Amino acid sequence: MKYKISELATVLNVTTNTIRRYEKMGYIKSKRTQNSNYRYYNEDDLSTFMNVRLLRKYGFTHTEIGNMKNSDMAGLISEYERQMKKFDEQINYLTNLRRRLKDDLILMKKAEGIKQLCYIRECVDLSYVIYQRRDEILTEPQRIAAIQDHLYLSPEVLRVYLIRKPDVENDRLILNAGVAVKTAHVDRYNIIQNEYTERYEKRKSLISFAKLPVNGEKNVKEALLKEPFQYMQEHNLKMNGDIIGIVIANVIEDQQEMQYVLVGVPIVEMQPLDYLL
Q1: 16-24 and 5-12 helices cross at what angle (nearest 10)?
Q2: Please, which pLDDT band fits residue 70 given cuts at 50, 70 and 90?
Q3: Mean pLDDT of 213-232
Q4: pLDDT category, 272, cuts 50, 70, 90?
Q5: Cα-to-chain-centroid distance, residue 165
Q6: 238-263 burial, b if ≥16 CB within 10 A, otherwise e?
Q7: What is the pTM for the complete model shown?
Q8: Across the chain, where does the E strand assignment appear?
Q9: Contact call for residues 90 and 58 (beta carbons, < 8 A)
Q10: Is there a contact between 162 and 244 (Cβ–Cβ < 8 Å)?
Q11: Which of 188, 204, 252, 255 is 20 to 30 Å from 170 at the Cα level?
Q12: What is the predicted pLDDT for the residue at 276?
């Protein structure tokens, strides 16, 4: 069976330019009629074209497909197994990314309709890197390398704020900004750990929601800590570590860009001696 280029394009539902491109790449080769200079293709070309399109659908690159043309069965099996492994990694990544998306959605709905201002639960175990301290951007090369790994390798990267416990005790509310991932993802995604990476361990925390302006001065004491500190005072609790804020979403409210933040204050119950200090 002979196909004109237009006929082959119709059967395959592609443009004639695509046919020419595949021919230029060496997948198929047109023949010439003896009595004219008219090009035509045969059944082998049709089969080859379909096979290449299938391999492209499997995610193989044109370079890989070109190399596979000369493979025996063992070589072909090896390439398919490699591609299967790549798919498994992508599926795992997307599964985790969907989980993070779902978590964000739950938090956004909770923040939008929150009635209970504070509640107690265990926080998430995190690995994090700080990139900003108040108005100072931190740019040490190893810090930047760790930030890039945290930011791009894990599908569940978080934007976080840290307020150090000693700063709170000294009434110096310095807001540190950083990126964080679940500690379990450090090994899973080969994320850099160096002198600039820190660990926020799982612990009992007082959770609340707050809003901060994206631009302009952030009133940390009033916006982030007023409600949790009042709750702690009323329930005989005290702070037991650095305060963490996890950014849930950026929104526009009253013509201003705002961040919704989930605030976690590590807590313990106050003992009788604490009241005397």
Answers
A1: 100
A2: confident
A3: 85
A4: low
A5: 29
A6: ebebbbbbbbbeeeeeeeeebbbbbb
A7: 0.71
A8: 31-32, 39-40, 118-122, 126-133, 136-137, 158-163, 176-182, 197-200, 204-213, 237-239, 243-253, 256-269
A9: no
A10: yes
A11: 204
A12: 46
Amino acid (1-letter code) at residue 68:
M
- Reading the block at residue 158, the tokens are 């978080």
Please state, in angstroms and rounded to a whole number, the distance separating the CA atoms of residues 104 and 97.
Answer: 11
> Is 221 in contact with 173 (CB distance < 8 Å)?
yes
Helix/strand/coil for 276: helix
Those residues with Cβ within 8 angstroms of residue 38's Cβ, 6 or more apart along the chain or in another chain: 4, 32
**What DSSP line would sit under 232-269, residue for residue?**
HHHTTEEE-S-EEEEEEEEEEETTEEEEEEEEEEEEEE
Q: What is d(CA 124, CA 145) in angstroms, rounded to the nearest whole number?
A: 23
Task: State how beta strands 204-213 and 237-239 pair.
Answer: unpaired
199 pLDDT tier (thresholds 50, 70, 90): very high
